[in-house]
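To whoever is on call:

I kicked off a structure prediction for a single chain this morning and the downstream step that reads the tokens threw a length-mismatch warning. I double-checked the sequence; it's 330 residues and nothing unusual in it as far as I can see. Pasting both halves so you can look.
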Amino acid sequence: MNPSGAGRCAPVVAVVNYTDTPPERLSSLVGTEATLRAASTKVGLDAILPEARIVVVWAYKSDLLEGSWELAGDVEWVHVAAAGVDRPLFPKLVESSAVLTNAAGVFDRPMAEWVLMCILAYVKEFFDNVEYQREHRWVNREVGVLEGQKALVVGAGGVGRDVAHMLGLVGMEVRGVARSRRDGDPDFGTIHPIGDLAELLPEADYVICALPLTAATQGLFGGEEFALMKPTARFINVGRGASVDEEAMIAALKQGQIAGAALDVFVTEPLPPASPLWDLPNVFVSPHMSGSGFEERLAAQFLHNLRRWKAGRPLLNVVDKRLGFVPYRG
């Protein structure tokens, strides 16, 4: 379905936000092209939703929309200001005629840079140097190089593609894993099906998880997967925390089954103070910030799609609501 937005000068857009005021940059860019009304509570959303033709879930972890969806009778388009749509995607939205879009593309380059930073920190022993500096120790030694290191990127969406491209530029050998096999891919060469994961894990120096959270990816990395990895391998997660069995990962890290992990996402966020991950010496914890620096791009992306909607043109980044992500069209 293509939203019938042609002819609407200033549609009401209900913004699920962290406050009852629309995001400043979004308001500034959209201007008079739409009427933005924000809510951070169910009472507030119930008041504005009946007038809305469009919903923007800016607070992407919020579940407010599900509780108020019965009032969204005129909503044709729901936009989630995030790459993952697992939290805002609920059964009644799936069954509805509303088109769902996400912010695919906004976070790809920053997240790829974060992955490269982590790999460089490991290869050049940056974390060790920080400790030596604290101890006032001068430890001159040989460190590794990126060229020839093997990376396995699990998830071949926009983030995974930018990761593969960036790692390829610095001489790493990159393989990709997705739902099905594809040959002749411009970024990966061959993309292997998820069923080949067990064969590919033992060869990788770095395993990068860039998966959306769906029923198929929930708990994908467990004890068996970590046991298959090299004891010198590192695991990097910029996808979703729930794609990993955290207890199994913690056990693998403690037992030396893998050498380390760089984690930007977790099952529970914020990461609880009692989590062992904070104190494991071979773990780098980052507070879900690998895609930072995005507000300007998020607002510009929505405005671009808003203009397409108003012109009656097909929207970009349409999520397959059954799959839970934007299918690759290459």
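Update from on-call: the warning came from a stale cache, not from the record. Cleared it. Sanity check on the structure: The mean pLDDT is 95.
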